[in-house]
Amino acid sequence: MLQIVPSIFAADFVRLGEDVRRVEEGGARMLHIDIMDGHFVPNFTMGTPITEALRRFTNLKLDHHLMIDDPDTYAPLFIKAGADCVSVHYEVCRNLDRTLHMIQDHGAKAGVVINPHTPVMLLENVIGIADYVLVMSVNPGYGGQKFIPNSLSKVRELRRWREQRGFRFAIEIDGGVDSGNIAGLAQAGVDWFVAGTSVFQAPNPAEAVRELHRTAEEAISVKV
Questions:
Q1: Which tens digits make up the pLDDT trace of 88-125?
Q2: DSSP state letters, 156-182
Q3: Pairing outcome for strands 85-89 and 61-67
Q4: CB 149, CB 139: distance < 8 Å
Q5: In CATH, what number does 3-221 get?
Q6: Is the full-model pTM beyond 0.85?
Q7: How confident is the model at residue 43 (pLDDT cuts 50, 70, 90)?
Q8: Is 63 an annotated catalytic residue?
Q9: What does the angle CA 23 – CA 84 – CA 211 come to, to the nearest 5 degrees?
Q10: How far apart are CA 28 and CA 206, in angstroms?
Q11: Which residues, 6 or more positions from 66, have their beta carbon under 8 angstroms from its beta carbon?
């Protein structure tokens, strides 16, 4: 099922609750939460108090993207705070299969993330474990960047793996997603579209979610 996953990294934190309500009104069923440690990426963001507050405020699924050097320590803390999905980077996990199983054992969906320079083929030995794969279509750490076109080939490769091997993982993409490229992404095989600036900085975030979802659905309904 296609999901527009608004990233609160682009929201107004003074009015975070209001922004969450707006995307709920637009039909969003998940929120994307970027956790950055200032080491793996050159930026800091949220800790578990934000997750706890969101969990009390909304029933939306909370999709946590851990851009941190030590996911094994912090993933359980975010799950305890209310995370439903937790993704970790291939680039930092020394024992990726163990980390994914650990996330699942704590009761959350486990995702693996690859940066723009990381080839899909490196996931071959864990692709049967992950509940979803997140393709970074910008370099992680900052919002508002331009989409990296080569990300489409990674999505297509993941889709081929899924179809040929009978896997059921979702394909998620994060970075530069907007109304101009979402149709092509949907046709390539993306299931979950992380959208920050294109949603929260739109005049009407609810309508922005609806329009992105409508465009994606129409794209996959076209027979080619």
A1: 999 999 999 999 999 999 999 999 999 999 999 999 99
A2: HHHHHHHHHHT---EEEEESS--TTTH
A3: parallel
A4: no
A5: 3.20.20.70
A6: yes
A7: confident
A8: no
A9: 25
A10: 8
A11: 35, 74, 75, 78, 86, 87, 88, 89
- Cβ neighbours of residue 28 closer than 8 Å, sequence gap 6 or more: 3, 4, 5, 6, 60, 209
Per DSSP, which regions of the chain are E strands? 3-6, 30-36, 61-67, 85-89, 109-114, 132-136, 170-174, 192-195
**Measured between alpha carbons, how far is 49 from 35 in angstroms, rounded to an integer?**
12
Q: Which of 19, 34, 131, 191 is catalytic?
A: 34
The answer to whether 116 and 95 have CB atoms below 8 angstroms apart is: no
Inform me whether the pLDDT recorded for 144 exceeds 90: no
Neighbouring-strand partners of residue 172: 134, 192
Cβ atoms of residues 84 and 97 within 8 Å: no
Query: Is 12 annotated as catalytic?
Result: no
Instruction: List the catalytic residue out of 19, 131, 174, 191.
Output: 174
Per domain, the residue ranges of the chain are: 3-221
Please, what is the average pLDDT of the chain?
A: 95
